[in-house]
Write a structure and sequence with these properties.
Blueprint: H1 2-20, H2 31-49, E1 59-64, E2 67-74, H3 77-88, E3 95-102
């Protein structure tokens, strides 16, 4: 009978350990934040892809905690500004870091 009394306590403890694994730390993102960043990255890449003057193959997009970082090479300063503007227009983006260069 004592083992039946311990089973709920064990299940609660196991559940707490599993849920703690999904929490973020100061150096790592939580699972939900990682998924949010992945969605933002995909939306920014899609916006760049849909812009005929830009090449999504030449622009690298990374997102960390809703901050988008653009890097790579573009043909002109106009294209660089256009890529930054497209990234800023994506819902959920808090800021854009421009590390692109002109070819």
């Amino acid at each position: 009978m004592t083992s039946l009394k311990r089973l709920p306590a064990f299940l609660v403890a196991a559940l707490m350990v599993l849920l703690a694994g999904c929490a973020g730390t100061s150096t790592k993102q939580s699972t939900g934040a990682y998924l949010d960043d992945s969605v933002i990255t995909t939306k920014v890449k899609t916006a760049i892809f849909n812009e005929p003057t830009l090449s999504v193959a030449d622009i690298k997009v990374e997102t960390n905690k809703n901050v988008v970082q653009l890097s790579g090479a573009v043909d002109s300063a106009v294209d660089m500004n256009k890529a930054v503007a497209l990234a800023r227009a994506v819902p959920g983006v808090t800021s854009v870091q421009n590390d692109m260069r002109v070819k």
